[in-house]
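Hi team,

As requested, here is the filled-out complex form for the adenosine-5'-diphosphate run. I kept the field names the same as last time so the parser does not choke. Let me know if anything looks off before we queue the next batch.

— J.
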Amino acid sequence: MSDTAPPFVAAPVRRKSAHGESLGVRIALIAVSLAFLLLFLALPLASVFVEASAKGWEAYRAAITEPDAQAAIRLTLLVAAIAVPFNIVVGVAAAWAIAKFEFRGKNLLISLIDLPFSVSPVIAGLVFVLLFGAQGYFGPWLQAHDIKIVFAVPGLILATIFVTFPFVARELIPHMQSLGTADEEAALTLGASPWRVFFRVTLPNVKWSLFYGVLLCNARAMGEFGAVAVVSGKIRGLTNTMPLHIEILYNEYMGAAAFAVASLLAGLALVTLALKTFLEWRFGDEIAASRRH
Amino acid sequence: MSVAVTIETIEKRFENFPALRGVSLDIQPGELVALLGPSGSGKTTLLRLIAGLEQADRGRVLFGETDTHDLSLRERRIGFVFQHYALFKTMNVAENIAFGLRSRPHRARPGESEIRKRVSDLLELVQLQGLEKRYPSQLSGGQRQRVALARALAIEPRVLLLDEPFGALDARVRKDLRGWLRELHGRTGHTTVFVTHDQEEALELADRVAILNDGKIEQVGSADDVYDHPATPFVCEFLGEANKLPVKVVGSLAFFGDRPVLGGITQNQGGLASLYVRPQHLRIVDETPLALPGTVEHLRRNGPLRRAEVAVEGLKKRLDVDLASQVAPAIGERVRLRITHGNLFAAA
Ligand SMILES: Nc1ncnc2c1ncn2[C@@H]1O[C@H](COP(=O)(O)OP(=O)(O)O)[C@@H](O)[C@H]1O
Ligand SMILES: [Mg+2]
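And here is what came back:
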């Protein structure tokens, strides 16, 4: 239980490192990784911003403020604003149940939580169409009660929830499991109510994992394409989220406009990354401590 | 404030594994009792049952006259110190200690200034003044242990339960804390049960020791009782080293082979038996009617203690003999051993 991170020690030049690779091998490995990152991450990201600004600032502004684009941005924010909190609540509950209690079917539940990651998003979308579409199982009933799910906002939200569900739970489960139940038991013997135990002990113990999960969940919720594309119906101004809007623009040869909107999503990714890095730098000790204990 | 704790024929299984098999124990108000036993003998399980963190399959736990079955954890008012302390890592020392007071229902909760005063009194009691703003990760093991104790004492518990309180500390700190805990108990007078697998710790600290083995209590008694008059072979072997001799009891004499080795037996147990003799109860003598001849094969020194290993014909294991202030024999020397004290148990 050391309280300090191992200090970074520069290996003396011309000596083999602890792992036995020579300096040359290490340089080669680093070069390969850097080249890969440059080619597959930095370059595409840069090109998004370059293309977005190809027709100048005015065109960029127009592409973003145009009503359909505005509707897409609002819809994306709305979907994320519902899907993310929902997944936080359910994800925390599921992680809590799995980490703190013994029950039958626990392993099944753990596998089920991972399901959205192993199923293609398109299939996930199709399942919702199959369930709630006009020809689906619940279609007639929904129509009779005048409820629209598929090709409407509720479908988008459902699909997004499904696809992004694992992020929060997967971050929390291993962390909560490693913490065990001793802290909670201590709080209970001290007379705390279950709510107080949860909000003052359990949640603070995992706040960094939770925050990571939420960050990733949000990035994915705003960027999700496959599942959303299937259930959306792509009605402009109504059921188009930002990723769908970008695709439509691109297919209509409006490259600059497409990249302009895309740059917003890319910006979100960068902000997420920056936030994550900042937190790791600023609270690195605490994060490490809360994970280690 | 302290209550008597009565444990009545407790049974507890985990799935099909019987962790406790009919455990009964009476603890007086203000008494300091050690639960001693090897790892896996059910000590923690028994402690958690008293605390209400586990439910018994059968039997009862009473605090005074009250059956605890229907009490909530809060109503039990238990001070529990966990084996690894379970301090709240996201709270500092003062917040940890105040947690129990702040958890009280609104009406019973003391005011902030009162809480602050109590925290500082407790910090003084456990000798940690000035550390209120530290986080658990910034404390040494011994300091964490004391914070855990202060946190448990803050709710004015009726019973104090400690699970291997010194288990995670190094030998020196253990010794210091032992004396300190004994003194603290003297001052606060809580009914206290502590779990340990270290017999020295149990014998030194506790008013009474309950020895657990395989989910059963083998013996309960004062340190002198259990050490000098072990009720079972297990207790005898667990509480310290003992040489084991297969003997046959005839009348008041115990025979090893056809040689009488111990006399004055009053227990009425003729027939085959095991005689347990501690190393300090074997003396090298010149001539005596009841003696065991052997050959010194090895000499050792363990701190202040010198010890000879003596091979005896007809016995596979060499006998350990404490030399105390006796003149050390030479290796290879033939000696005669007299048994000054032994414990006899009928052979199973
Ligand atoms: N929650 C549990 N589930 C299953 N078995 C358990 C559980 N807790 C304890 N046991 C078993 O009960 C026995 C006694 O455990 P414990 O009371 O922790 O022993 P000790 O504290 O004396 O080392 C052990 O064999 C242990 O494996
Ligand atoms: Mg234990």
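Two things worth flagging: Chain A has two domains: 1-52, 55-291. The pocket of magnesium ion (ligand 2) is lined by residues B 43-44 (CB under 6 Å).

Thanks,
J.
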